[in-house]
Amino acid sequence: MLRRLANSQALFNGFHKTIPSLFNLHSHNRHFSSPETQNNSTSSSFHEDNSVNPNEANEEPSLPSAKLSIDRSGLFNPPEHSHEPSSDSELVKHLKGIIKFRGGPISIAEYMEEVLTNPKDGYYMNRDVFGSGGDFITSPEVSQMFGEMIGVWAMCLWEQMGQPDNVNIVELGPGRGTLMADLLRGASKFEKFTKSLHIHMVECSPTLQKLQYKTLKCEDEDVSGSSGDKRTVSMFSGAPVSWHTTLEQVPSGLPTIIIAHEFFDALPIHQFQKASRGWSEKMVDVADDSSFRFVLLPQPTPAILSLMKRYKWAAKEDIAKLEQIEVCPKGMELTHTIAKRIGSDGGGALIIDYGLNKVVSDSLQAIRKHKFVDILDNPGSADLSAYVDFASIRHSAEEASENIAVYGPISQSQFLGLLGINFRVEALMQNCTDEQADLLMSGYWRLVGEGEAPFWEGPDDQTPIGMGTRYLAMAIVNKKQGAPAPFNESQD
Q1: How far, in Å, CA of 171 to CA of 168, rounded?
Q2: 333 found inside a domain
Q3: Digits of tens for pLDDT over the chain (492 positions)?
Q4: CA neighbor of 175 nearest in space, from 148, 145, 137, 146
Q5: Burial class (CB in 10 A: 0-12, 13-18, 19+), 65
Q6: What angle do helix axes 421-429 and 144-160 make, rounded to 10 degrees?
Q7: How is 230-293 classified by DSSP, letter by letter?
Q8: What is the largest CA-CA distance in the chain?
Q9: What is the side-by-side strand order in the sheet with 365-368?
Q10: DSSP secondary structure string for all residues of 289-301
Q11: Which CATH number characterizes residue 437's domain?
């Protein structure tokens, strides 16, 4: 509205000098910076035109007459933007708009959150990013055996819980729903277990929710006759299925089994870099050429509180060696929520992800079409992720509840091997063709192997790369249930 008024010279005849002060006042109330303090980068989302008629620039302001003639045409037909059309995507325009009108850079955490989960243009929100046709492949997409082994873990935990008749089984970030489908299919013979399940999928992407509905072979049932109330059930087990955007929305009060596979790695992180003045947060800004760039912020940010907490949990000698540190406040908060629920309701959580059992330094990466790309290149077109700090998860869980115990992390290879994946692959090999056997062995190596598969005879660019040691598994369980399979109490 201010821009339109500024361009209606008849309406503001003689008062053009007041426009900047009005805009500054408006900006202050909206917590924006004034035009004089804005970043010089161009944003196609917003544009101010505070220009005045040069012929009036030196005139003294005149008093308004009793009758004022107003030309309203400019209010209904605003002039075209003065800048050239931008080729930026809507998400890039949005990010530049945030930076420009905030008057400074944004944190890497905010950048990640917008890039991945912006409701309109976020990476995960409107597309299927998984599998060979997507940008990366996860373990459930590699082999059905992965989901089957997670099912074995869940059934063992359920037995330790006393085989309750009603259990919430929750998956965080279920992707296509492949893991849960394989879990239900593999456990289908254990009817008492599958009949106890209430499935909750925590997923913010409408597109992926639809894929999960299809993968789980869901159908909607009328549960109350004429009222029209329906519930969704999976035809794999008859278990009811619900979708939520956050874990907090999942009903509490029942023993809960939580599965978080490659979920923590996508949570937004803050990066800090050692500078002459101490630790400075690394931020995302817009350069003079309108591209994104990293900068260090001289003043402290709110995220420094999370860094101080991580400092408290780490050995001084480990911190002293680092030039950069990553912290994940959202991961700490999520772990608190998980631990409190398990501590009060019973059950356990399984976290499998790539990461380290110590402070993480500089691990943020972007993957597009199965290749690493620049983190700031064409945001929204590539997946962003960072190593999971498993030590931070342990400390956060133990801080949240005295009723839980944390086990692990152990390698994915150890985890799957101790659950019996070797026996499963042998059983599947007995009734398959040569081509199916090759696929099974390739999938098996990706899940438990390390480095390139030694037996591969196919194209070099398709050589299976093992995830067995790069991925770690950790369990958080209620103390009353004891150590879950395949962890043991002596595990560090």
Answers
A1: 10
A2: yes
A3: 433 333 433 333 333 333 233 233 233 333 333 333 333 333 333 333 333 333 333 444 444 444 444 444 444 444 444 344 457 889 999 999 999 988 899 999 999 999 998 888 878 776 665 555 554 567 888 899 999 999 999 999 999 999 999 999 999 999 999 999 999 999 999 999 999 999 999 999 888 999 999 999 999 987 766 566 789 999 998 999 999 999 999 999 999 999 999 999 999 999 999 988 889 999 999 999 999 999 999 889 999 999 999 999 998 888 888 999 999 999 999 999 999 999 999 999 999 999 999 999 999 999 888 789 999 998 988 889 999 999 999 999 999 999 999 999 999 999 999 999 999 999 999 988 888 888 899 999 999 999 887 877 777 777 788 899 999 999 999 999 999 999 974 454
A4: 137
A5: exposed
A6: 130
A7: EEEEETTT--BEEEESSGGGS--SS-EEEEEES-GGGS--EEEEEETTEEEEEEEEE-TTS-EE
A8: 98
A9: 371-373, 365-368, 383-385
A10: TS-EEEEE-SS--
A11: 3.40.50.12710
Distance CA 8, CA 14 (A): 12
pTM reported for the whole predicted model? 0.79
* Strand spans (E) along 9-110: 106-107
Q: How far apart are CA 68 and CA 100, in angstroms?
A: 37
Our count of domains for the chain comes to 1
Instruction: For residue 283, give both structure tokens.
Output: 């931020």
Distance CA 215, CA 318 (A): 44
- Containing structural domain, residue 439: 139-266+327-481
**Phi, psi at 101, each rounded to 5°:** -85, -10
> Is residue 256, in this structure, part of any structural domain at all?
yes
Q: Is residue 476 one of the residues assigned to a domain?
A: yes
Two structure tokens written together for 280? 């400075």
Residues 6+ apart with CB under 8 A from 131: 137, 141, 176
Please indicate, yes or no, if residue 410 is contained in any of the structural domains: yes
Residue carrying structure tokens 């099974």: 440
Assigned token pair, 265: 């790695």
